[in-house]
Task: structure prediction
Amino acid sequence: PTPSRVLTENVSEVWIFFVLSFQLLVGFSVMKVIMGVFLQITFYVASNDDVIMMSQKERAVRVHTKKMEALFEAADENGNGRLDQDEFEGILQDPACVAWLSAMGLEASLMSSKDLYKLLCAEGTDDLSANELCTGVAELKGNAT
Result:
């Protein structure tokens, strides 16, 4: 006979509450461990799935483009669709904008606004388009190690 049956028949029926509580606790614990293993395997497979990785990368590019377009619209004071050096330097005078660019991965505080403007402009141009800003910031951001 099982220990729980011996306790309830020979000692007291009150022991049934403790036995049932113990069995429920062990049962739920085993279920949680099994569920954790399934979730770990699922996340591992999802993190290594090429389709998911490509869609995450595409989503990150779209988000980056939207943010850079918002920055461009805020900086384009005359509304001509191009940023000259004065407009670009003007937006980088705002510490909140520099901190925002830093959070995006571009450490604008580490170089002068003139140097950053020269790096972002396409070769042979003296102003900056929205597309040049998006691609230039994407190329410059991140660790250079």
In short: The two ends are 68 Å apart (CA to CA).
